[in-house]
Write a structure and sequence with these properties.
- The chain is of the alpha/beta class and 298 residues long.
- The protein has 14 helices and five strands.
- Strands 2-1-3-4-5 form a five-stranded parallel beta sheet, with helices on both faces.
- It is globular, with a radius of gyration of 21 Å.
- The model has no long low-confidence stretch (mean pLDDT 94).
């Protein structure tokens, strides 16, 4: 088989001269990506958390979802987080569980068995969860295609909030709220969040309006979640641009300092020095170990 190699067009000297602080090769690579202004280049090379993270309440159903969750917390209802079994879904589930526990919720996480139960909600699992006393299910990294299962939960007086980022079906589930950046009438400006990123936006939304924490505590709790957000984002191979890039960049900084026992144990087992952790460590060492768990048991 023969190949025809097509190299990108070499940029003009006047463009190179606009960015004298950067190596010409870097300017060329940025230009190839469509990054041809100082603003775009700065956003890409120098992520800024306060500047580049969007308000979670730009999601149209965010207020509705947070109000229902807060009501469940106040009324001591049991909440079940129904996650996916891959690294993205596991991290997304832990992100929400962490914040809900911090806010005083009665909450459990349910992760299905990959081989026996498959991806997404299924009726047997939903029935098991409802029989266990749950009145609110929050999906993580799944749920957008589960029309029948959401209807079944509703018939059994259990409401469902969906957080997901997968392909949109022709018919959406009749959930209480759907936090998904790609649904047709969604105005949230960034469309490529991973499941962990979407769960993080819900966590942000809950932190933003709670009166159970001081503002400084809210900021601390939010930023300590970023290790899992980065792990989910990089593991799921979503585009590392705009908000994802910020989440990954700062999340790697938090991973350097993480005290989560499971991650620390993986660092030790894999001989990873957390001070020098990279996206390659996540993609090829951490994420595969988390993914394999669902092939070994429930």
């Amino acid at each position: 088989m023969s190949y025809i190699w097509q190299s990108p067009k070499k940029i003009a000297k006047e463009i190179l001269d606009k960015f004298p602080e950067l190596h010409p090769l870097v300017v060329q690579l940025l230009y190839n990506r469509g990054l041809n202004s100082q603003e775009k280049i700065d956003e890409f090379l120098y992520p800024d958390y306060s500047r580049d993270i969007y308000d979670p309440y730009l999601f149209k159903d965010m207020a509705k979802a947070c109000a229902r969750i807060n009501m469940a917390i106040e009324k001591k209802e049991k909440i079940t987080i129904y996650g996916d079994y891959d690294a993205d879904g596991v991290c997304a589930s832990v992100i929400l569980q962490t914040i809900l526990k911090k806010l005083g919720a009665i909450v459990e996480v349910y992760l299905p068995h990959r081989e026996k139960q498959g991806y997404g909600l299924n009726k047997n699992s939903v029935k098991e969860i409802i029989d266990g006393g749950t009145t609110l299910i929050i999906s993580c990294d799944c749920g957008i295609s589960n029309v029948e299962e959401v209807a079944f939960a509703k018939e059994n007086k259990t409401e469902v909030i969906i957080t997901d980022h997968h392909s949109i079906p022709d018919i959406l589930p009749d959930a209480l709220a759907i936090i998904h950046p790609k649904i047709a009438d969604e105005k949230y400006p960034f469309k490529f969040l991973a499941g962990g990123g979407v769960a993080f936006k819900l966590a942000q939304g809950l932190l933003k309006t709670t009166d159970k924490l001081l503002d400084k505590e809210k900021e601390i709790e939010e930023k300590w979640l970023l290790d899992l957000v980065a792990l989910a984002t990089i593991a799921d191979m979503v585009p590392l641009v705009k908000e994802n890039r910020v989440l990954a960049y700062y999340g790697l900084r938090v991973l350097e300092k993480t005290s989560r026992p499971g991650i620390v144990a993986l660092f030790r087992r894999l001989d990873i020095n957390s001070k020098y952790i990279t996206e390659d460590d996540i993609s090829f060492m951490l994420a595969p170990r988390i993914n394999i768990a669902s092939r070994m048991g429930h």
